[in-house]
Amino acid sequence: MTADLILVGATFGLLCIGVVMVLSASSYEAMRDYGDPFHFGLHQLMAAVVGLLGMAFFMNFDYHRLRRLAAPGLALALILLAAVLLGGRSALGATRWINLGPLSIQPTEIAKLAMVVFLSAYFAGRPERALTLSGLLVPAGILGAVAFLVMKQPDFGSTLIIMGLTTAMLVLAGMRLSWLLGAGLAVLPGLIYLAKAKPYRAARLTAFLNPWAHRQDIGYQTIQSLIALGSGGILGLGLGQSRQKYLYLPEQHTDFIFAILGEELGLLGTLTVVALYFVFAWRGYRIAIGAPDEFGSLLAAGLTSMVVFQAILNMLVISGSLPITGVTLPLLSYGGSSLAITLSCVGILLNISKHGKERGG
């Protein structure tokens, strides 16, 4: 049976916009640092090719087989997260990558996928596990181990996403909301401590509360992001015509690419991207509802949540609605590991959709 073509269309729309925007947003920095304005754009294009190959593979790989690979996959992710701390590549004060010759991988992206697959397998067919405290010990222990390793990099934004993903999986599995609320209140002091433990995180909170009062220092990035969005107007300044990408806005082709998109393509461009993510969410959750078994349903809902939650978090940061977290925009931001893993997740969703159609889902 055919896969969900609407999901394919939304994915390709976001992917094409992403490659073009990475090329545009990074051109000045690439020329300055590498003498080639296409440096980051070509790397993103190559990552897209790898990701599309992964998407094609998983689209034709029976997702039921992932259930047997859940535990080994999670173990591999934990090993890679530990390996990063022992000999990973550092940049901007964080150690998040493992170099493999000319390539590099970011194990945190692999860990997100591994956790969704494992939790889907753990709860599938065993709904009582979400209704007993003993059944929740395994997810809690895994979350603690993964969050600890990710925070050691350090990567607070990815830690929040992983915690959000785990919460979503527990809700989908049927956990009582009263328990979830209690757990949230229990970990809240720890999150507040982590948010303030490092000076740069505390500064982000201060800048979030009043960025205009700190426009020359800790609020600078937020202000420049808002300037980029505001100067785009309805139709934008035109593709390639951003002024903020000339080193006014840091991380312009990674965390803050949505701001450059708003500057160059205007409100129309940003609403187009939001609409594509909405379509992605609609089709992903529809696939979850129509899945032929509980494992497929949990897996599809988890993978969709992984992409959509991160996209919402990034766009809220760009608009100044949340403190800066260092979270990228799925399918748009520069980053080979993120792009390849996200496209592979789409392949899994498409495979589930094929099985659902075969059984009338």
Please describe what this structure looks like.
The chain is mainly alpha-helical and 361 residues long. 69% of the residues lie in helices and 4% in strands. The protein has a three-stranded antiparallel β-sheet, covered by helices on one side. The longest helix is centred in the C-terminal third of the chain and has 34 residues, at 257-290.
> H/E series, N to C?
HHHEEEHHHHHHHHH
What structural category characterises the helix and strand content? mainly alpha
Distance between the amino and carboxyl termini: 12 Å
Average pLDDT figure: 90
Topology:
Elements: H1 5-34, H2 39-59, H3 65-87, E1 89-91, E2 94-100, E3 103-105, H4 107-123, H5 137-151, H6 156-173, H7 177-197, H8 199-209, H9 220-231, H10 257-290, H11 294-318, H12 336-358
Describe the structure concisely for a colleague.
The chain has helices at 5-34, 39-59, 65-87, 107-123, 137-151, 156-173, 177-197, 199-209, 220-231, 257-290, 294-318, 336-358; strands spanning 89-91, 94-100, 103-105.
